[in-house]
Amino acid sequence: MRIRDWDRNLKVRLFGEAAINITFWMFFPFLTIYFTEAFGKQTAGLLLVLSQVFAVGANLMGGYCADRFGRKRMMVISAFGQGAGFLVFGLASSPWLDSALIGFICFSLVGIFGSFYWPASQAMVADVVEEKDRSHVFAVFYTSINIAVVVGPILGGIFYVNYRFELLLAAGLICVMLSILLSKMTRETAPRDVTKLKVTAGNNQAWYHAITNQFKDYGVIMKDRTFLLFIVAGILVGQTFMQLDLLLPVYIKDVVDNVTLFSIGDWSLTLVGEQVFGLILSENGLLVALLTVVVTRFITRFRERNVFILSSIVYAIAIFIFGMTSSVWVFIFAMAIFTFAELMTAGIQQTFVSKLAPEDMRGQYFAAASLRYTIARTIAPLSITLSLYIGYDWTFAILSLLALGSGGIFYLMFKRFEDKQEEVKAPIE
Question: What pTM value is reported for the model?
Answer without folding.
Answer: 0.71
